[in-house]
Amino acid sequence: MREKSEVFKVFKKFKNLVEKQSGRSIKVLRSDRGKEYNNSEFDKEEGIEHQTTTVSYNPQQNGVSERKNRTVMEMARSMLQEKHLPKAFWAEAVYTAVYLLNRCPTKAVQNMTPIEAWSGKKPSAKHLRVFGSICYVHIPTEKRHKLEEKTEKGIFLGYSTQSKGYRIYNLKTKKLIISRDVEFDEDAMWNWDEEKVERQSVMIPKETPPQQQQEEGTDQAEMERRSQQAPGSPRRPPPSEEIEEETPPRRTKLLSDIYETCNFIMLEPENFETAVKHKVWVQAMEEEIKMIEKNNTWELADRPKDKEVIGVKWIYKTKLNADGSIQKHKARLVAKGYSQLPGIDYTETFAPVARLDTIRALIAIAANKKWKIYQMDVKSAFLNGYIDEEIYVEQPQGFIAKGSEEKVLRLKKALYGLKQAPRAWYSRIDKYFMDRGFRRSLSEPTLYIKSQGNDTLIVSLYVDDLIYTGNNEKMIQDFKEDMMKTFEMSDLGLMHFFLGIEINQEKEEIFICQRKYTETLLKKFKMESCKTVTTPLVTGEKYQKEDGSQKVDAPCTEVSLEAYYI
């Protein structure tokens, strides 16, 4: 709006839009006592109740909108200052701040984003970029000669709502354009005094899919009018400190990476207060408590005067299948073991786990001998471990015994989170195998072998997951039945997915792959559509001197280490 008198005209457009899009009518309009909001005749005709703050100059009576206005303005101010942009771009910063807030989860709509609550579709964050960063806009071949430059330098100023494109301030033409064919340099900014790019750190530009480019009727004069200023050319406000000439290169995550991570994390509550609002997590917590009580893990006791009581907390995890789909929602009650005192609350803590080489060797043996490999899972394995120490924990949130709120729980068996819990579980399961005639491997403490004449049974243990194979089906069946009598087990049948490895067992062959892990790795490093190259060196990378004083992200090293597990 150019003037406040345009409020009514803009409101009518807004009203028509939201009512037609949502199928609902506006019933209440709340505003301050500004005269531009007064149109009682229109309100009566449309059946709208107009509420106003009762006292002038008391914005706190319209707290929701006033606080949101403050949030938007603080975001806009921060974005302008971060890239040293002139105030002439304040309107673009405000627009972008609102655009981002509409794509951030909020309690007002049950932890969804406003866009998702409005449209029913989860918004993508892959296109988000750092406001005010330097970018390079592709010039269509129709608008340039063969020997002219293919790109023009610009400043990213937000997102277009009319088309799928970015709003770019062209530094050459001083006009605002919209384009999809843009490369971004998010760690660079424009030096308005020297008319050049100023760099603080290095980042690989990311190219977006090419599409059309068009100009809007917004030029430099229009932007100056918005800010009610008329500078000859935008000037960068002087920074409070001089930037060093040589800065160690540092890679930072794209804003889109951060948003994608946040969207995934929303699947798993961070605390009890959030989880209790969702039925699936309430059921998961009830199942966990049921398992603990069935296992006789604790008993109510008076709070001890000479012993420290350890706190507990809930941890939530969404377990996925091999194809990435949700398998189940798991809630785990864990003790805050970091408060335990060595020598008093625990002694030994070490517990071995199977090496990946051992798992692969077992699969190779089974494939060579044409044996089937089976898999079982011990439910709440750590709860089966016996402990010798006297340990007390607080009652868990949501499951405090009525009438015994002041009491605590004395542990009879281990609880997840205790320092000695892994050791206690391993001691219990190791004793089980040894008592039943298994031999423990000297080089691999989690590999057990049982022989009866020419029959062999091999079991490998990875914390609470067991895989087993052999040449005698009756021997295998007896072992499974005995395990299920002794512990609460989940029979997973033939092994299909274990430690990120997908296993396909045919009649005489076993095929293994890590498709899901590989796809996740490629997605993490933005290489889903990559082409093979002879060297991992990034094309067009720019480097600066560094003295080794700051930590530098090294994607090449990181991906190489993670690829080691493939």
UniProtKB/TrEMBL annotation:
Matching entries from Gene3D superfamilies are given as: Ribonuclease H-like superfamily/Ribonuclease H
Q: Which residues form a coiled coil?
A: none
Stretches for region Disordered: 201-252
Residues covered by the Integrase catalytic domain: 1-122
- What PANTHER family would the database entry show? RETROTRANSPOSON, UNCLASSIFIED-LIKE PROTEIN (PTHR42648:SF18), TRANSPOSASE, PUTATIVE-RELATED (PTHR42648)
Alphabetical keyword list: Hydrolase, Metal-binding
| Pfam families found in the cross-reference section | RVT_2, SH3_retrovirus
Respond yes or no to whether keyword Hydrolase is given for this record: yes
Any one biological process term the GO annotation gives:
DNA integration
The name this protein carries in UniProt is Retrovirus-related Pol polyprotein from transposon RE2
Classification of source organism: Eukaryota, Viridiplantae, Streptophyta, Embryophyta, Tracheophyta
Instruction: Identify a single GO molecular function assigned to this protein.
Output: hydrolase activity
Against InterPro entries, the record matches this protein to: DNA/RNA_pol_sf, Integrase_cat-core, Retrotran_Ty1/copia-like, RNaseH-like_sf, RNaseH_sf, RVT_2, SH3_retrovirus
